[in-house]
Amino acid sequence: MAPIVSIHQLYKHVGEEVTLQGWVYNRTGKGKLQFLQVRDGTGICQAVIFKGNVSPEEFAEAKALGQESSLRVTGIVKAEERAPGVPGGYELDVRSVEVVQAAEEYPISPKEHGVEFLMANRHLWLRSSRQWAALRVRGVVISAIREWLDDNGYLNVDTPILTPAAAEGTTTLFEIDYHGEPAYLAQTGQLYNEANIFAFGKVYCFGPTFRAEKSKTRRHLQEFWMVEPEIAFCDLDELMEIEEQFVSHIVQRCLRECRAELAVLERDTTLLENVTPSFPRIHYDEAVEMINAAAAQGLLVPGYDEPVPAIEWGEDFGSPHETYLAAQFEKPVFVHHYPTRVKAFYMEPEPDRPEVCRSVDLLAPEGYGEITGGSERMSDPAKLLAAIDQHDLPREAYDWYLDLRRYGSVVHSGFGLGVERTVAWICGLDHLREATAFPRTLTTMRP
Ligand code: 4AD
Ligand code: MG
User: Fold this and answer.
1) What is the rounded average pLDDT for all residues in the chain?
2) Which of 206, 325, 395, 399 is 20 to 30 A from 144 (CA-CA)?
3) Is residue 213 within 6 Å of ligand 1 at its C-beta?
4) From atom 9 of ligand 1, which residue's Cα is the shortest distance away?
5) What domain count does the chain have?
6) Is 77's C-beta closer than 6 angstroms to any atom of ligand 1?
7) How far is the CA of 371 from the centre of ligand 2 (A)?
8) Residue 228 Cβ < 6 Å to ligand 1
9) What is the mean pLDDT of residues 345-369?
């Protein structure tokens, strides 16, 4: 019996007889030859069936196979430079075919389908090569995230998903009934992370987070994954250094390990190659000046075909602003010191200039917008209590959080990186819904 080999390992078996097990991605043929594109989850390989090499029954069966039929094919691995596939370059010269199940007529064909139809069939759409490629990259992004943090002294301490209070504003809370009491799905694990650093120094939590975003955009999901590192004795400048190391590691590992996937996605990786420390840093004031200078000249937002909108100092950026700003740099850019009033209650105001805070967002190039948001946290208990009141938050829900400032308070900082935004950027996807297997958007909840 020939050994069962996965397609991405075929290069190790040239000249040997092996068995592939998988599904028919596509089939073409003429006369005595049938070409099956077989996918097995690790790649796609062309299996070439010559009539004389298999039994007449097998040949007839192969010729009738519909898309997504499951099968085992056995044959000799050939290195063939022009062989199509993912990764290409190897094909199977078939000696036997065993059909596991002849599939019913498959609803997704290689022709174009509308997004609504594809989303309704997301459970099947996942098998298509672009979806496959993006989700493979996602797997590597997640592995690279954990690798960097684990190797750099961060302890993974996970935080609850059922929470009693808001952390990122009250407008995007998903409320649930917790045995008669209101509770909320976590928007972030940050507040708990802040407790955890006092026990462990450097930590991260990593899990799904939830935001009831009321507007339909390409960049917002209702449920997304966020990794949140939090560090004791760390200020805003040190935070930016950590972030640039971390993000560079993720991107470079994907470039190394996901060549085949990025080729399927036809991703131009030129700008991704640049993602190495250090990243440019601009103050919010400077960002506003850049935007308003562009607006005054009537410059267009790259990829939007609309002029850069002017902005008033104190406003948060919209996505055209972020896109324009990011396009001025060859690398991701940090924008720091946003106005205090547009940011979360826990951010440390600049002592000499409290209208701005020690916050930083990292903007990705090519219109992907904010991929990380972070800050130095308020460490003084009295200032924090005032901020809680100012944001109309219930004091009693944050008493434990204030304790953290009462018993050994230190300067500390952290950030959150959105996995789907990062995957969309690395893969060049135009919508976050393709960066997760079963996206939850304003309009989709099924399957
Ligand atoms: O900027 P955000 O809201 O920051 C926080 O939640 C902080 N508590 C993180 C921290 O400091 N520990 O969100 C962080 C990141 C954003 O930069 C973005 O990448 C992603 O999470 N994100 C979303 N991704 C998809 N859909 C949404 N609705 C998102 N909202 C935020
Ligand atoms: Mg943010």
Assistant:
1) 96
2) 325
3) yes
4) 416
5) 2
6) no
7) 8
8) yes
9) 97
8 A C-beta contact, residue 252 and residue 276: yes
Examine the domain organization and report whether 149 and 90 are in the same domain: no
Strand-pair partners of 228 = 205
Q: Is ligand 1 within 6 A of the CB of residue 372?
A: yes
CA proximity to 62, closest of 90, 38, 87, 89: 38
385-389 own/partner pairs: CB under 8 Å, 24+ apart: 387/345, 387/346, 388/345
Q: Say if 168 falls within a structural domain.
A: yes
CA dihedral 22, 24, 30, 32 (to 10 degrees): 30
Q: In what order do the strands lie in the sheet with 175-178?
A: 162-163, 181-185, 175-178
Do 59 and 158 fall into the same domain?
A: no
pLDDT in tens, 199-219: 999 999 999 999 999 988 999
Ligand with the closest atom to the CA of 338: 2
Longest dimension (CA), the chain: 85
- Express each pLDDT in 293-313 by its tens digit: 999 999 999 988 899 999 999
Domain shared by 95 and 127, yes or no = no
Mean pLDDT along residues 158-172: 91
Same-domain check for residues 276 and 383: yes
Residue 425 located in a structural domain? yes
For 98-144, what is each residue's pLDDT tens digit? 999 999 999 998 778 999 999 999 999 999 999 999 999 999 999 99
Shared domain for 82 and 180, answered yes or no, is no
Residue 309 lies in a domain: no
Task: Say if ligand 1 is within 6 A of residue 204 CB.
Answer: no
Instruction: Give the CATH number for residue 88.
Output: 2.40.50.140
| Residues 247 and 352 both lie in one domain | yes
Distance 374 CA to ligand 1 centre (A): 9
Range of the domain at 145: 123-280+329-435
